[in-house]
Here is the input.
Amino acid sequence: MKYYIDRKRLGISEIFSGMHPIFSPSNDMTAEETIRLMCEQSHSTRSKIAAGINRAIGKMTRDSTVDVDEYLNDDIRDLVEQPVRADTLTSLLPLMRWLMELHRVNSLDVERSQYSLNDAANHMEREAGEFLRSCSTNMMWQHISIVQEKNGLLMTLNERFWGKAGLFFPDVSTSFEGTFPLVGMLFCIEAEQSNGEFEFSFMVNVEFGTDDMELRALQNRNWVRLTFKCACPELRLSLFDYGAYLRDFGKCGHGFIEDWCGEVISKEQTLGSASMSVREQELLPLAKLFRITYQMADIEDPEKYEHSHGEIAIPGKALELLGNRYRFAMYKDYFEKNGQQELYEILGKAAEAWGEDEIDSVASYLWKFAGLLREKERNDSIRELYGCLIAKMLDCTSEFGDVSRIYGTYSEAEEKMRAIIEPKLMESGFTGSYPHYRRLKKRGKKGEYISVLTSNVNRRTVNGVMTYYFSISAAVKRLEKRGKGKKAVYYAGGIPFENTTAEECSRVYDRHTKYCELGGIYDDESAEINIDVFDGLSEENQAEDTAMVLLKFVNVALDGFKGKAMPRWYSKKRRKSSVKYVNETTTGGTFMKFLPFGLYISALLMGVYVVCERFFDLESLKNQIFIPEARTALVLSLLVGTLIALVCSLLRMRSLRRHIWRY
Here is the structure.
């Protein structure tokens, strides 16, 4: 079998590519043009480029574990003795020519390897072939396991939230002298097919450490090449109801849709379309659209982002929805039946621009769509559309019945978690059941919510121990009472109180709603609950969990409901977290929320003035007290109303800084 991929040469390319985009294989300029562009940059930028080049060369020449001498020429070796400086970039022309030739050879090798692998995949069943292609293009540096099974080998990837997948290679013949199971990080797969027989080569790094991946590629140690011949491979697939998992993990509204879209996109990238259900394929373009618009909606300055990250400003393949007229028309009902005609019209204009190949206009419409989507989340006017989509997504995955090993142990973690926090919540007057709890306050005028969130991303297995991560979200929302006595029903934003959750308040911004997440990304800490996957682990293999921190977060939330400032230990945690805690609302935004209230006060004052002017003799009182003219009174009332709105917004912002609330 011919091997095309040169691991060390690819590693060198990755080292330089990670240093700066100008050194990536996608740079289509000549070496001379690249050097000229670098020299035109500011001194600080040139200094950073020079420092990056010196680090890259240092990795290849000074690390005793690296052996790439055969790939270096004399010009590169000279740079070891004479480090690059900001004012000597013009001397890097030999380096750029060497690097671009290295990129060119790598590109040819990868293309030849992919051609050979595609030919082998074309001779398999469609599902297995698409999965093999995915492994060759998307699975670099992914954890894999290769085990012996019934005269064959089974290669599997780590279990994902949507399922687990692998290839079974039957009737294997190999000269491999290592031991199975072979567990490590997959670097590449190469394959050939001839006369109905397949030959495979797996390059696997068997070291589990913290070294950067590019440096590992240059080392000789801890690398295993497994080569074998076999009959036609088969896809082994277990699919899970990941929609139900997300729901059980406390996800609602925006959070559910974003995570569901991420899972279905990951599934398609890993398996290909052949292994996805018809209903998943129908929702996939919409999932890609929502995924990218969520990213765009979280960007405060689109113009700045557009110049530095063009791939999201002009989404390309992520907008296949716009090119599929049939599916685009099918989604029309989703928007129109749920009162979102305005959103659909923007998509219609984007589709027209896509059909006319006006990419800039497509990006412009998508930025507009993302902004309107975020605005509708803020004023809680998109709930019906989200409810419709969530129902479709849950129905889409309900046909998958396999039980995840990860989720199978979750019930134990849930039981332990509930034993810690539920007594405290029930004692405090909350009702409901895991993962959402709620209670009425101030005679039904206010609803207080607590949701327990389980991370579907940060999970890991350590020495046979499954670790689950929990956090707490809390919210306060004003309620509306309909009916009297025992027949009274309470509503939050038109939704029955019993059907609303803290998570559904996470994207709603108004002056009657407060929200926070405790133990989330802003705190650098989640409650860890560990479950013994295997029976009889020794004490040294067991991991201590931090489940009791959940109770601390619940106590912080309960104090927050009472209006107390956050405790000192929690405030300190917020200040020192790696993700800085920033209130979602600004003074200006809060002022605009209170402005209608200020105008109401202004109108009330003017009403009082008009009544007094009509029924009292104000002229006789002007000599005793100051009574303005009508025009002056109007101006003063507006000023008073504006001042009241400003004071209320400042008090609100001061409260947010001292308390747990994010807005």
Q: What stands out?
A: The radius of gyration is 31 Å. The longest strand covers residues 465-478. The chain is about 50% helix and 15% strand.
